[in-house]
Amino acid sequence: QVQLVESGGGLVQAGGSLRLSCAASGSDARLNAMGWYRQAPGKQRELVARITSGGSTRYGDSVKGRFAISRDNAKNTVTLQMNSLKPEDTAVYYCDALVPPRDLEIWGQGTLVTVSS
After folding, report:
1. Chain centre distance of CA 74
2. Is the confidence at residue 27, as pLDDT, over 80?
3. For the residues 41-46, what does the mean pLDDT come to?
4. Which of 25-34, 37-46, 53-62, 74-83 shows the lowest mean pLDDT across its residues?
5. What is the DSSP string of 84-98?
6. What is the dihedral of CA 86, 47, 94, 39, to 10 degrees?
7. pLDDT (tens digit, 9 = 90+) per residue, 87-110?
8. Which of 62, 60, 66, 65 is nearest to 83 (CA)?
9. How far apart are the C-alpha atoms of 90 and 94, rounded to whole Å?
10. With 0-12 CB in 10 A as exposed, 13-18 as middle and 19+ as buried, what is 113?
11. CB neighbours of 6 closer than 8 A, spacing ≥ 6?
């Protein structure tokens, strides 16, 4: 069974940076799209960034130009570099991935990012 484990969340001041990592275990096959979503209190979960196995990326409008997603296909890991953080970036960040062959979507347990003003 494939599992995702996130790491790297924490408390940072506005304008600072954090790097989130997500590692998949339980699969020798390359995962398909991997990505990050976030959910702030009282709000719906929203896309932060997504990356295909071929390296194509997609970002949420609110993070474009500040966040960068990357992945290591050999290790089935995905990383989110977050720069110029704002208080409105405060949320629980979830890693997700599509598991072949049927693109079953799986989620990590989430990691909290808190940006203080």
Report:
1. 18
2. no
3. 96
4. 25-34
5. S--GGG-EEEEEEEE
6. 60
7. 999 999 999 999 999 999 999 999
8. 66
9. 13
10. buried
11. 20, 21, 22, 93, 94, 95, 108, 109, 110, 111
